[in-house]
Amino acid sequence: MKVLLLSLFFLVLTSLVRSQSTITIGQTTLQVDTLVGSLDIPWEILWGPDNHIWMTERRGRVSRINPSNGAVDIILNHQNQVWQNSESGMLGMALHPDFPTTPYVYIAYTYGTNASNAREKLARFEYNGTQLINETTILDNIPANSTHNGARIIFLTDGTILLTTGDAQNTQSSQNMNSLAGKVLRINQDGTVPNDNPYGPDSYVYASGFRNAQGITLLNNGRVFISEHGPATDDEFMELLPGRNYGWPNVEGFCTSPSEIQFCQDNDVVEPLVVWTPTIAPSDLIFYENPLFPEWHNKFLMTVLKDRMLVALEMNSDFTEVVDETWYLNNLYGRLRDICVGPNKEIYLATNGQFWSNNQPNTHTIVRLTPPLSQVNLDEFESDKWHIYPNPAKGQIRMDGLPKGSVLQYTVRDAAGRIIFQLNQENLTFIDIALLDSGMYFLEIQGQNLKSVKSFIVAD
Questions:
Q1: Helix (H) / strand (E) containing 436
Q2: Three-state DSSP state, 99
Q3: Which of 11, 137, 255, 392 could lock 459 by a disulfide, CB 3.0 to 4.6 Å apart?
Q4: CA–CA separation, 89 vs 120, rounded Å?
Q5: Cβ neighbours of 292 (radius 10 Å)
């Protein structure tokens, strides 16, 4: 019997090694897993201060996702209020900077019955611990359409909100200062206009001349960068500056033709830092910092839809010039809509299928890329010195003898080697197993230079 159990143990360990998915970026090996699948077209994913991923799905749902086990908790089902067609629907989202002390969630979504009467609104919801309730309209009647709706939201350091809007397929609206379309808007949290807005206290407009900006990120130094969809040419990446014109539809990309040069001079147009022709369809972007992942450290990471990849942009020290551009993950996970980063620098990607027309429900995923964790000195750790107890166990298992002071990855797998859930944490002493069925499982502990696996039994 002991020989049989030992053989089974090593058979399962071999299966674990084979079942692990990894990719290599330069000299860095990343673990890859699908946190959750069967999603209904995710659009926004955010890492919340509650250590959950917050997600919008275009057809009208908002959910919290447990990163330990991929459990999806639907906290708002707004399908009867949202108009979803093509790329419209439940779109951008931002949590209040003091969340959860101030439990407000801001969401941009389209409503109406067809393209001719479609509108976009910015709404505020209150999170009561289980659901989003008490919807309050912050800004309404923004022109919308089946595409070109913008809808990314961020908070600035002063607590005001930036919202990108698209031209709603009416190109002339981007230069019309009386229209909210084709702009970046700056809004107080209660929906009023900030007194110091660049066009005065009666205008929400922060910057103008956009076609469809779907990426925006705030750096620690307060500067904002943005990505935008071009038509057939000239997708763009640039710094967002208040009170400036970004050219659309009179300028595509750089100011090059005689008419563009004249328009740029007359309207103080900001030229992009990078353009892509033919277009690649850039979506959201973040600024990533992680010295243990040098290939992406201190770079902008931008998700790409049409060309199905991730673009890393390196800038000079004063963020005035892009000095390197590298493409990654080409065609590995399909169209990449959004990106967020967890507390241990793991990267989450929301996928949107293989093709622009892919509106099939329940076919999309969130992929997790886990880079190396904090350094662990193997001289201070011996794998035979750590233990799981009690074993068999009910409710929770405890661990002792693990190294202190370093973030480790804890992976629980079933007897077939499938990942049940993962945790990334420092000084973890117990794991909740109350939801696991009875049977044999494996706990894998991993750091940058450390890997050890032990079995445990969940009792009936």
A1: none
A2: coil
A3: 392
A4: 9
A5: 14
